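Possible race condition, two jobs.
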Amino acid sequence: MPLWLLNLISFLNKDVKRKFIFDTQSKFFLSLMPKFDIHEISDEELPKIRELIETKRKNLNLSKKTKKVVKRKDHLIGESKDILIREYIPYKTDNDNVILFFHGGGYVLNSVETHDPTVAYFSEKLRTKIYSLNYSLSPEYKFPYALNEGMKAIDWLESCGINIKNISLCGDSAGAHLAASITHHLANENKENVHSQFLIYPMCDPSCDYESHELFKEDYLLTKKAMHWFWKKFQSNKKDELMNTFNLLLHKKSVKLPETIIVTAGFDPLSDEAENYAFLLYESGTSVKQLHYPSLFHGFASMTRLKAAKKAVNDFLSEYKKIL
């Protein structure tokens, strides 16, 4: 349906919060999606739900395809060679830096496969090699299991001759949390850190106690109940809450992190905590930039067939390219 017709239909039924209007095409798209209460799913049902989501994501074809061929090459890493990392090689690369990418899904859902079109699109636009890690999911593998696998991925990249100063970390939602968790871990250990981090609507604080969680607690794809459920599945014990690799907002203001870009969406429950994290990094002396897209929702980065989402993604990738 043409966008002008959607705008005409919704003219008298605008969704306005914080003085911004929810993108019309996104609103119609989300209204067509079946309601899915992930927080009501039992642990026994999760494997089937993951398979279903992976199949549905492929069939929905939400991401724009690349204009040119982006080559894929799968590698198995780790002591037992059981961790998949997928390499994306664009038709042309502009620099010696590479990106280590972590998919979102609350640490419970999704995979390299669900984010394959998105990562390929990123690689083509950035003209940069990307390595996408298929980290282990919760609740089978709780915190800090994925963090340790992320460190193994960095070690593997270094064994391939890539210096850590040439590795940029990127992820969306839980994947953004994992990227930041790694930079915090390296800083805690006083080790050489990565080149930069690009965090797309990151989950940051397990409390979920922000105005945005109430304003956008339902009807915008990600719900407040789902976020509480994700954190619960991910957490190993109460001690996790005292660690800045778990709760990012516990990061010490005296510790400077690599150059950071944080993407936030206006109609996203996580927008406030991500903005607080950006300000915390600013206070620590970290070079940080927040890119805010007030009319969009959590998950838009993987939905570039929506016009506003594609425009926003192309915009934030142009900003990312500047620091690579």
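Job #2 (started ~2 s after job #1):
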Amino acid sequence: MSSSHSEQLATLLAGARDGRLDDLGQLLEMYRSYMMLVAQAQLGADLRVRASHSDVVQETFLEAHRDFGQFQGSTPAELVAWIRRILLNNIARVVEQHKLTAKRDVRREISLRERVASLEQSSFDLDAALVSPWSSPGSQVEREEQAVLVADQLAKLPEDYRQVVMLRNLQGLSFEEVATRLGRSSGAVRMLWLRAIDRLRQQLEKENLI
């Protein structure tokens, strides 16, 4: 993570802890692209028609703003983890509401805590997938910090570029599967993906992130 970005986060966090609500609002906005990416990855297509990932993220930010006094951490990395846990709890509740049928088999029920733990592991995997093409940070904290920055750059890509990177790199689909999702030929998807990766690499280099 660039030193200027880290310093900005630390300054805003200090201001938020001193009760400056504008600083807290700016701080949350700096994590919006990353949280949107996590929500989009965790909410399957069948759930997204019922619960928009942007709505889930907005609900999460409202809760984070309301409950900020309960945040016990002291670093931006701890804040990211705290906000993400709120987000994953909200996603888990969406899954509970829409996935479980009225006549469910008790033996197959998954507790909310277990579901959140599964989602959290999935989000760690997402961080690794997001960061690994560009760098190999040695700790989970470093991966999270880098993932936030890469997510910001990914959000700046054109929609078709963003979609192909999401499906190919973050969801691990084959080019044939991506082609089916996007309604394009496999060859067209490969070319689209190459252009998208090249554009993302250029943006990361411009921001001195790789």
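The CA atoms of residues 103 and 200 lie 46 Å apart.
Logs attached separately.
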